[in-house]
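Page 42, continued from yesterday. The earlier attempt failed because a stray header line got pasted into the input along with the sequence. Redoing it now with the clean sequence only.
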Amino acid sequence: MGWLHALRPGRASLALDLMEEFRPLADRLALSLVNRLQVQPGDFDLREGGAVMLQGDARKTVVVAFQERKQDALSHPLLAESIPLGLVPLVQARLLARLLARLLARHVRGEADAYLPFPMK
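This time it went through. Structure tokens are written below.
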């Protein structure tokens, strides 16, 4: 089940939907690494079929930068407390599970005609 990704057998549409809100964080990290010249065109290998692979040292640079970024604290708007960025996907997944459980219960009790998806801004 998902809102942004189509349903397909074997596809985790809801998990993919949840990841979408974190795409800007990954994009920002990637652009920062490119802008600081920590990752350069020569760090990639072009493989058969058009695949592109990041080479060893550059891969380590990306992983280290990602691990450091996950330690940064931010204020969660709903919880009104500071949490590490690395925990935000877990917090959001739990909040989504709670929301879905409440909406499903309302539907089963007859209080809601249909499931209404959470409006993303």
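Notes: Residues 14-108 form a domain with the Four Helix Bundle (Hemerythrin (Met), subunit A) fold (CATH 1.20.120.920).
Reminder to self: strip header lines before submitting.
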